[in-house]
Amino acid sequence: MNTTTDNSGDVRLTQIGKRYGAFTAVHPLDLTVPQGSFFALLGASGCGKTTTLRMIAGLEEPSQGTVHLGDQDVTHLPPYKRPVNTVFQSYALFPHLDIFENVAFGLRRRGIKSVKKQVEEMLDLVQLGEQARKKPHQLSGGQQQRVAVARALINHPKVLLLDEPLGALDLKLRRQMQLELKRIQTEVGITFVHVTHDQEEAMTMADTVAVMNAGRVEQLGSPADLYENPRTTFVANFLGTSNFIEADVDFKSGDEIVLNAGGGKLFLPTARCSAQAAAGGKVLVGVRPEKIALAHADDAGEIPEGRNRITGRIADSSFIGVSTQYVIDSPVCSGFEVYAQNVDRDPRLTPGAEVVLHWNPAHTFGLDATQAIDAGVESVEEDAA
Amino acid sequence: MSAATEAPPPLAPTAPETRPPRKRGRLTPYWLLLPGILWLVVFFALPLVYQASTSVQTGSLEQGYKVTWHFATYWDALSEYWPQFVRSVLYAASATILCLLLGYPLAYLIAFRAGRWRNLIMILVIAPFFTSFLIRTLAWKTILADGGPVVGALNTLHVLDVTNWLGWTAGDRVLATPLAVVCGLTYNFLPFMILPLYTSLERIDGRLHEAAGDLYARPWTTFRKVTFPLSMPGVVSGTLLTFIPAAGDYVNADLLGSTDTRMVGNVIQSQFLRILDYPTAAALSFILMAAILAMVTVYIRRSGTEDLV
Amino acid sequence: MPFVNWLKRRLVVIAGLITLGYLLLPNVVVTVFSFNKPKGRFNYEWQQFSTDAWKDPCGVAGMCGSLSLSLQIAVWATLGATVLGTMIAFALVRYRFRARGAVNSLIFLPMAMPEVVMAASLLTLFLNMGAQLGFWTILIAHIMFCLSFVVTAVKARVMSMDPRLEQAAQDLYAGPLQTFLRVTLPIAAPGIAAGALLAFALSFDDFIITNFNAGSTVTFPMFVWGSAQRGTPVQINVIGTAMFVVAVLFVLTSMAISNRRNKQKA
What we know:
The complex is a heterotrimer.
Chain A: E1 11-20, E2 23-33, E3 38-42, H1 49-57, E4 64-69, E5 72-73, E6 84-87, H2 99-109, H3 116-125, H4 141-153, E7 159-163, H5 171-188, E8 191-196, H6 199-205, E9 208-213, E10 216-221, H7 223-228, H8 233-238, E11 243-253, E12 256-261, E13 264-269, E14 282-287, E15 293-296, E16 308-319, E17 323-330, E18 333-341, E19 354-359, E20 365-368, H9 377-384
Parallel strand pairs in A: 3-8, 3-9, 6-7, 7-8
Antiparallel strand pairs in A: 1-2, 1-4, 4-5, 9-10, 11-12, 11-14, 12-13, 14-20, 15-19, 16-17, 16-19, 17-18
Chain B: H1 28-55, E1 57-60, E2 64-67, H2 72-113, H3 118-126, H4 133-143, H5 149-156, H6 159-166, H7 178-202, H8 206-214, H9 219-230, H10 232-248, H11 251-256, H12 264-275, H13 278-303
Antiparallel strand pairs in B: 1-2
Helix pairs in contact in B: 1-13, 2-3, 2-7, 2-10, 2-13, 7-10, 8-9, 10-13, 12-13
Chain C: H1 2-9, H2 11-33, H3 52-55, H4 63-94, H5 100-108, H6 115-129, H7 135-159, H8 163-171, H9 176-205, H10 208-213, H11 220-230, H12 234-265
Helix pairs in contact in C: 2-12, 4-7, 4-9, 4-11, 7-9, 8-9
Organism (chain A): Streptomyces similanensis
Family (chain A): Belongs to the ABC transporter superfamily. Spermidine/putrescine importer (TC 3.A.1.11.1) family.
GO molecular function (chain A): ATP binding
């Protein structure tokens, strides 16, 4: 695809914000989505991600700021004049039109007379050629979803906006459609902006993810970057699971910060600490459950030097096939989660056993201690339900 | 209305628009409302004002009427026509209760028991609407004719003895008695009871019946504790849709009744169209309106379904 | 007691069918008496079978004229009330505006008012304005009382409509007018049709309001009313029967068509 020099599919939001009376849905934010990328806006319901998307679509007028597509200012263009199409939440297929007419709708509105060939090709692309004369309610959820995508893509928009496009599908179909959408995006090379509350969905599909919370972008980056280097507890908790220890800064030595927690020492690479870590201050030390190794207290001596370690007692363990998930109570942190691969299972690691947790300091991240430790935890559970 | 005709939207980048944000359709709702609301204001609300003014006028048809704030008309009208008022309320109330008793089983039947007959029965309930109600009301003259099979059967079963004792009928006649009028009112407004009842019954999830049965409720208890309470919105709107028109009706009393069954509607009609005593007619009409609005308000409050309207 | 149990289980069905019989009995009588050959001026007692009236349905002076007048008024009243009522319904569902409560009351009140009150007060207005009673006053009155019913029917349909459908149309390059014509109107159509049908039935069959505001103009219900005083021709029953049959056939065919369509598509 020859799109590298073309920037007409860039989406540029400049200080864009939306207020409803006294309520601020989206705080002024700057965001650039480069041409051809798959961009995800991730957040819990009510975080402003859909409002942001609708401002790009033109369905919502921003209270301030501007929207640019490439070099064109579209801030005040109505939706029907924007070269942008949307895949709506629960699809919004026109119930009174059949599949063919649904897909042909955009072409016809732009005054294109011979739509047959294009529509048929598009329906074949989404494997719905057979269903052209059916009404939307006669299709399954997955088929309706593909019609919605076809209906938007046939217009060759500069940007395709997807508002929770997979929310109504069951888990298996959702996984399948994620790959399908990713394939289509690579094939057509159009900029996709995808709104979702499902962190796994965002990470599987998107090149770049913006995590939104309470009308603000908390952090922006590639899925791996967000996962490995979360800069707020919200991001750390919303994407996957994190364990946090509140620790006192002892001193800095070179590119390492030495911390005190419950009498033990923990090491944190300076580069991985997003907080101001002055000696005597506090820092939240975070580590992902799968980075941690578990050793029985009797084997504590065998743990290599230079690893972060804390002690505790197994409170609960659940076997889930590929791994075993442990909950460990430790003096520095209760409810520490550890995911251990089931390679060599130590039979002594049962609830009640005294253990030592240890991990490579390079996997530690440090966050500002003034924020809530459990930010982003509740909302994940709510949305998953 | 904003932008009525749009040329095919230009998709190629156009000159950036620098207009300030449009106030999209701020005035649209008012334009949409204007003609219809104007119609109602001029031909529904304004006439009520005229009527109120007419009711306090004095004068004569020849010399013209003037507003003299003659409130005595109200008192005179009430003291002369209170029997007709009482009769209207009684007849309308009886008809409403009869409609509820007759209509509920049929609505229930259509909603839960009709199966594949549902549509057909629905049609049969609605179809009479399309035959002029006056023709159908006249048919009751034949059905209730003196010495006809219906009256004969009622006589044989000694039903007429009971109704005579109650004062609903007189002698061997049903026609030209209160019973005939109530019977006609019931008949005429029965569909207005059945349709709202059906609508609210149909919304009830059939599994609720099963759940009630599962929780040891007998059918009758299930009805009392689950079905009937859930159908209350239908009962309320059905009784209103029956009572209000029945209370103002004069067709049934005229066609099926006698001078002893005249209702307030008959009085208003004859005062207005025959006797041409406009102030009295206007006063009566105003009293009827006020009485019904008051009753309806109290009724809706009591039944706790204000959100119905 | 098997019989008592049988009866108990079918009590509702039996009661319901009795009501249905009560509802349909007059129609049966109307039909049967359309084949009567009465002796006097009134067609209340059965004399002998005859198809005279069916052979000459317009044989009564003024009846068919009144019928055609009623149809005309009903068509225009339906058109007027449907257009005005649909506009109000859309405004109520789709927009926020001041005085919403007042508008709602103004819509509700005509339905909560005995017809005779509306009829009498409208006549006072017409008399005060010195208006000539006739076709136009009847039409004005009919549009007035049908309006609320149309609003209610259309409102229910528009309220259940997903606003995202209109947004999707806008997103797919349909301007406001296109969106309305291609998406909003077709989807709201069943509600509008229901409102229109109701308006037609109400207007065509209206007597009380017409009686007050018709002057010397005679609609079909007015004709029937007058004949109840002067003498009821058998032709009235012919018209009544025909209307019933046409209505039932109309509903049955439209249902059959929609059934077939669904089957074909499925």
